[in-house]
Amino acid sequence: MGSFKIRTDLALEARENAEEEAESLSGVSVEEVYHEDSEVRITKVSITSKNSARALGKPMGTYITLEAPAMTQQDENYHQEISGELSMQLRGIIPELEKESSILVVGLGNRDVTADALGPNVVDNLTVTRHMVKEFGKAAYGKERMHVTSALIPGVMAKTGMESAEIIKGVVEKTKPDAVIVIDALAARSIRRLNRTVQISDAGIHPGSGVGNNRNVITRESLGVPVIAIGVPTVVDAATIVNDAFAKLSGGEGREWMRMQDFPEGFSELYNMYVTGKDVDYEIKQISHIICDAIEGALDMQA
Amino acid sequence: MGSFKIRTDLALEARENAEEEAESLSGVSVEEVYHEDSEVRITKVSITSKNSARALGKPMGTYITLEAPAMTQQDENYHQEISGELSMQLRGIIPELEKESSILVVGLGNRDVTADALGPNVVDNLTVTRHMVKEFGKAAYGKERMHVTSALIPGVMAKTGMESAEIIKGVVEKTKPDAVIVIDALAARSIRRLNRTVQISDAGIHPGSGVGNNRNVITRESLGVPVIAIGVPTVVDAATIVNDAFAKLSGGEGREWMRMQDFPEGFSELYNMYVTGKDVDYEIKQISHIICDAIEGALDMQA
Amino acid sequence: MGSFKIRTDLALEARENAEEEAESLSGVSVEEVYHEDSEVRITKVSITSKNSARALGKPMGTYITLEAPAMTQQDENYHQEISGELSMQLRGIIPELEKESSILVVGLGNRDVTADALGPNVVDNLTVTRHMVKEFGKAAYGKERMHVTSALIPGVMAKTGMESAEIIKGVVEKTKPDAVIVIDALAARSIRRLNRTVQISDAGIHPGSGVGNNRNVITRESLGVPVIAIGVPTVVDAATIVNDAFAKLSGGEGREWMRMQDFPEGFSELYNMYVTGKDVDYEIKQISHIICDAIEGALDMQA
Amino acid sequence: MGSFKIRTDLALEARENAEEEAESLSGVSVEEVYHEDSEVRITKVSITSKNSARALGKPMGTYITLEAPAMTQQDENYHQEISGELSMQLRGIIPELEKESSILVVGLGNRDVTADALGPNVVDNLTVTRHMVKEFGKAAYGKERMHVTSALIPGVMAKTGMESAEIIKGVVEKTKPDAVIVIDALAARSIRRLNRTVQISDAGIHPGSGVGNNRNVITRESLGVPVIAIGVPTVVDAATIVNDAFAKLSGGEGREWMRMQDFPEGFSELYNMYVTGKDVDYEIKQISHIICDAIEGALDMQA
């Protein structure tokens, strides 16, 4: 307690942080696949006990992480390969896709802050079909069976005065989708993972997890339907950067953190600051297209 | 029936259209005030019977229209005068403002189409306070009593797959505001009224009114709380332009409309087309600020 | 003189208008190819004499028009087919592409008005390489020979206070490209052509052609290097719509125009108004991608 | 050499860094004024010798810094106070404003990266008059004498393939303004100064100053007309954050920097990363309006 808490939204990193103590941690399983030719690494972390959830600071559930160092390079074929892989992972984690489903896709975040605009950008590009199917039937698309999609950009609390969770819950109760996909920009611990990593999870969204604030969670429990979260780390907390640098200097490999009370005065100003790259606009644009294609592929919606 | 139906979202124009037959129309009252110095004309049309509502093609209610020919000229003082006038009118029509109220402001329309972006633009500029008051109390603003505001940009059906009415209803049920203000871009009949007119109404929003589609209305009845609509005509239907020109040429003053079956082939392509001005970006920006100031003024939220 | 002048930026339409009188017009040649399977029609109008240029109201030069009714439908393969066809046409019209060339791509228009944002949108998506090749050589792209690209969005005069032609000329003199490609949104006469037609021309850009204003042309003569114009009709003048409707009603097939002095009072307000469709945002986005791909294809820049 | 070089674009901070050694530095003069009521501090650093320029890493010239802790708070009156103060400072530093001048205002930066969009945002809001005065004379504004303004958003090299300096120089030579005002987002050293500080300078813009790259400077020498730079620190380099934290921990007050060779592996990834705040969109919007008002005020252009 009192010690500095590294923030990461990636279960993968949470497990790495906890690695030493957690070596024999029960209730956590990890599978890893590496595609040598595409340099894509897929890691599946399953957190299956409350103890391990507490230890990792992540809710129970399955977390699939795809890391692709070349994700934002300009290469249309590579993008298709990655979105194909993501489609496959999504098909595995969205429940009951063998039946016709109605899916609400939600883009969290602030469209006016580049690094936070991932969710809105994905939704801007997404094909929605619910209104057409309601009005004209599946015949409008020349199909006998199809999933239908709707989409929502709730906006951020500073601009709406409402929690995203409130808005989404209201819309879910009114429009009754079978499942919700939520896309959000995440904070990673490692700069190397920024805009090169996608996390898919069935654990939903827990803003400020561990803080005991359950009002704002977006989960199967809170919404009453399955929630699949797709996240991409686009920022690192400024405080994390400093702390990691300390750890490295002191010879640690990211395990011995400074205690907050040892931080010199003025350090607190690092809170509410984040670190991002200079090409963030280009990278977010590329990844938005990849994720949009992945969702449309998983739902067989591609033209 | 079968005759071309001029589209206007302005009650003022609906009454003008109906003028001749309606001379002795009961259930419609009109008051007009003209400020000579500012050239601002305020017209209040009250539709109080079902018969007159049917005759005018507008639901019962009060419609206040402010016309200001210089509305989009670059003159900060004039803008303040207009928004002050609008504030006063809003205070008269929003119920129970003598008590502390929670107001949800909704910006309808498509932020990616300039002439349709009025609603989103107003909301982008609006100060919201609900989340702060919930978290820190009114003390956060150094006030003992205040109205609180929240804001929503639901997006258009082509991008969400959902009716705006569904989204708004869901959010209203979840966040329980005392009243809803809805801002939308309208279609006028007269090009002269574009971007120079604001209509305030307590009748809510009835898209495609008269079509018998009640699913999509946004009204006190549908939401369970008072709905104040603020609209600005930013487009004219292309078909209206042609029809008006015909009427003028045939000597009519906009009363003798062509019947649709008389329209030559190819004319139907005018549907789903609209007419707008070349400075629409600048004008929408100016009016968005005026309406935003008017709402903040009516709710005593100005810094 | 005095008669209403239908405005069209398409040479194809100018020739249609002039068809009757011009049947035997010398100095104009027309070739047409129709691809039945893709429904793509390519028309090449060559204006080779001053007389015919005057008769058509278009400068001498070659005008290639591609019409594709399904251009904005959501079909990735069809888009590739169209951009492939455009690439081929561009390769035929950009001079000296067998040598390594430096190409400046200019996006004209106002990015804040949806129907006028085509040029800026294309440039936003375009890959530029000039700075990389200057800094690191062609090795940066693993190539031994390649064209290099630069790009400019000059903005509109109402926001810059300068003619686009002035800005472009300054930049051309300073950076010395071998050729300039200029992309602009055009006005068509026929609503059916909106967002379904691309015109490629080596005649450059002549805003308000015929008005005798030579200050603002963007041509080989004014810039000193070849200028290729790519244009897409995204609007129709409001006055044209009315006039066409008159002509149709009076039994003409678009040949007998009203004289302006016969227009009733109030008609003049149609000037500076334009007609556009309700899905203009989606359609402009689709076409921007097609044109961007076409340019990158023509210059062998695709990843 | 080899030692880590703290990056700051503020002359004020450069002088603070150099303070100890530089105490008796000749060729640097500093004046400071503090307005107690508004908490606005104005510091004027004059660098008048080559030696001191080298010592501070800033070109010779006058640097006026306005610091206002409440700059981004929502308070229209306070904003007017600050922009009034900035107007006064601008009038003092723009040469020959007693004559009618033609001023080109340039917004540097990337409009798609929130923290870098300051320059484009200011220009988007600015009133330009050059085209009107050229076409209709000063009578268009009802004035007998007035300055005229033009404006340019050149875009960033990654999107144009050209140096901003090349574009600006081309436009200056073609349109011949009497002076150029350049607005840019800066990097500060201290997080506390972000979005609360404005620097005005007659020394122009020197990207990567000290690197010996003179191709890209935007100065009176390079353009042939006076250049006034207006800058606001909106980011801190990520490496600076870490270094400052080290310095604080080691008891230094920001004077004893780590040498780069002592940085542990992986630290280099901090280059090309920057730190910014979570409300950067709101803050940039506020400051853009303040600077736009300040320029219009200095040039007597306000409506």
TrEMBL record, chains A, B, C, D:
<keyword id="KW-0645">Protease</keyword>
<dbReference type="Pfam" id="PF03418">
    <property type="entry name" value="Peptidase_A25"/>
</dbReference>
<dbReference type="GO" id="GO:0016787">
    <property type="term" value="F:hydrolase activity"/>
</dbReference>
<keyword id="KW-0865">Zymogen</keyword>
<keyword id="KW-0378">Hydrolase</keyword>
<dbReference type="InterPro" id="IPR005080">
    <property type="entry name" value="Peptidase_A25"/>
</dbReference>
<comment type="function">
    <text>Initiates the rapid degradation of small, acid-soluble proteins during spore germination.</text>
</comment>
<comment type="subunit">
    <text>Homotetramer.</text>
</comment>
<protein>
    <recommendedName>
        <fullName>Germination protease</fullName>
        <ecNumber>3.4.24.78</ecNumber>
    </recommendedName>
</protein>
<comment type="similarity">
    <text>Belongs to the peptidase A25 family.</text>
</comment>
<feature type="propeptide">
    <location>
        <begin position="1"/>
        <end position="9"/>
    </location>
</feature>
<dbReference type="InterPro" id="IPR023430">
    <property type="entry name" value="Pept_HybD-like_dom_sf"/>
</dbReference>
